[in-house]
């Protein structure tokens, strides 16, 4: 009889004790905030008791992974203060002694270690599955060896330099061809030189006395 | 050749009716004919490209925004018709008739006003310096647009990867990228900082591209403008289509269609100055371009075409710009609201996504009614769409801060960023053609180029010289210096030069002679509208604008906005006064270009009074109408 009463008390008392351990603003507890619709939109699943159980299992996994020695179970993760946000508080009890809570710092380390796994379990991200007080580590920036802009610059300046050299060379070649052509013409001119009148190619417009109209005014 | 002295300033009309013969086309020291355009299209595209610049995209929409589009267009179009088009026609006509660059042309018209040409050249030189630096900035952003994610979309991490860089967090990633990563700006002008190597690299690229387009003079420019003058229109159309489909575009476009009574007299001043600077007159570049034309070209049509296309481009560019600004305001408004929604949802543990942008007001009212103290503790921001829409920016602020921020929110940001910066680059490059032409052609005409030096080498030397001088804009304080150059060189000197240009042609050269020239070139005399404009309206408008502009400038205190992370009110810019030595430089920059006008006049007066008909006078004013070589000598009886 006594044993049976004790057993009853344990059944009733344990959850009550658990509730005392887990409450809003518990010193060793964390608040979790989940934004399903923001993350998944149309594909958002419903947050129900099964999901809560899944969360307990995930947290137990995280604790096991971190400590590696002790065997944590879903019973060691106590959840409370659920809202429709969805948000709730949780505390972690030690597997050896269910009245003893694991300190906040240890829980944080465990969460940090397995954060990526926890996020993926729920198809969420650091932003939509928040552990208030545990800040996500910032992603290291991707630093390529050569900055990309330098590559684009290299291409552009290479093309421009090639263009400049090509144009300069073609200008030089054109000039040389013209000079060759002109000297050849000049040689022909010398051969065909007519006495007296030099009707040159030069366009200086100097006065050519050969064409003065001297006879315009009759001499007295 | 001058009929004597200081009383009569007009040149003899000798030889006018003979018409110019072919030989005056030649450059004087070589027997090479003057270069000419391959076809009319190249000439028109070059002029349009010169007139249409970055100001059409980032200055005109700003003015429409602050005055209201409908209200601004009226004074703008009036200024175009009565001030812009006459000046444009005048410059194209005298360049085409006299077939020389700015110095040669003004020396021909009146030796006393040869200083106008010199002033044009000096101002073009100074403008080339800072304008190509802006092109270099555009190139830098273009190079950086080929990354995923865009470097101005997020803050970089600090040294130990614990958080973001503080300067970036306090301002915005876009501001941080512009002021720190691009300019590496110093907190004030006294601190010069060091040369930013990435800026030097971009500047070198910009000058190399300008050089390659100038290598063979207008032959290569004419090819380049097929791309640089037309590509911006293609990009603007693409942006137009894209922007009109963005949310919030409609609210942005409202600005274009607001009509307000023209109460503010400032709007007239801004309209007149905008049309004046937009058309790029008084640079000397337009004179140079039209000097390569055939003399029998109808420059009246060309002038009207270039002027109208320039204004039409401004208006056309405003549409996508406003649409995108509206989209940006809408995005900011929505993110502001979402911040408030998240705060409310988290604090009151309301179900996720129950509060939306649409029902935010009702939720806010009900929560505020029931728990006012808790709501006020949240410090929610007031989100007003109109406040976001009213944020306006012009100049580099529009392109590098506002627009880059808008581009981040558009899907496919890299494509839009690349397109936008290539468009700005084409606009800037085609304007640089005109700027540099205003420097090179007068130097050729002044016969300052040694005969042994090929043109390519001379152009290279000038480009190298300009590049080295522009390195001051690559210092830490470079942006402050650029603003000074922009405000003091790129404003008052042009108004003065244009005023003297129009006085020279209308009163000193004579409207009668000018009409004869126009009749020779276009086949008909200019009608009464042009004559009235040249004689009365345009000089009057220019004079009034000049006086008003100087008056307004004199009233604004000489201050500048400095980016100082240690400032108390950071991220607001700190307003600092110019140091005295900087202010002295500002005054110099405004006055030195135009000081050549009185100096040359006085010099010629002194020469003339001392009675010397030196060889210089023949050399410096190659009057195409008086050709001593064909004087018929009377036979001695």
Give a written overview of the molecule:
The complex is a heterodimer of chains A (220) and B (637). In chain A, α3 (49-67) crosses α4. Chain A is built from five helices and four strands; from the N terminus they run αβααββαβα. With 220 residues, chain A is an alpha+beta fold. The N and C termini of chain A lie far apart (170 Å). Chain A has helices at 2-21, 36-40, 49-67, 104-121, 148-191; strands at residues 30-34, 77-83, 87-92, 129-132. In chain A, strands 2-3-1-4 form a four-stranded antiparallel β-sheet, with helices on both faces. Chain B has a two-stranded antiparallel sheet. The chains are: A alpha+beta (220), B mainly alpha (637). Chains A and B meet through α2 and α5 of A and α6 and α9 of B.
Give a quick account of the main beta sheet of chain A: strands, pairing sense, barrel closure.
4 strands, antiparallel
Indicate the structural class of chain A: alpha+beta
Q: How is the quaternary structure best described?
A: heterodimer
Helical content class of chain A: 40-55%
Tell me, rounded to a whole number, the average pLDDT of chain B.
86
CA gyration radius of chain A, whole angstroms: 47 Å
Q: Spell the H/E element sequence of chain A.
A: HEHHEEHEH
Number of helices of chain A: 5
Order of helices and strands of chain B: HHHHHHHHHHHHHHHHHHHHHHHHEEHH
* Structure classification of chain B: mainly alpha
Organism (chain A): Oncorhynchus tshawytscha (Chinook salmon)
Keywords (chain A): Cell membrane, Glycoprotein, Membrane, Phosphoprotein, Signal, Transmembrane, Transmembrane helix
Domain Collectrin-like (chain A): 26-220
Pfam families (chain A): Collectrin
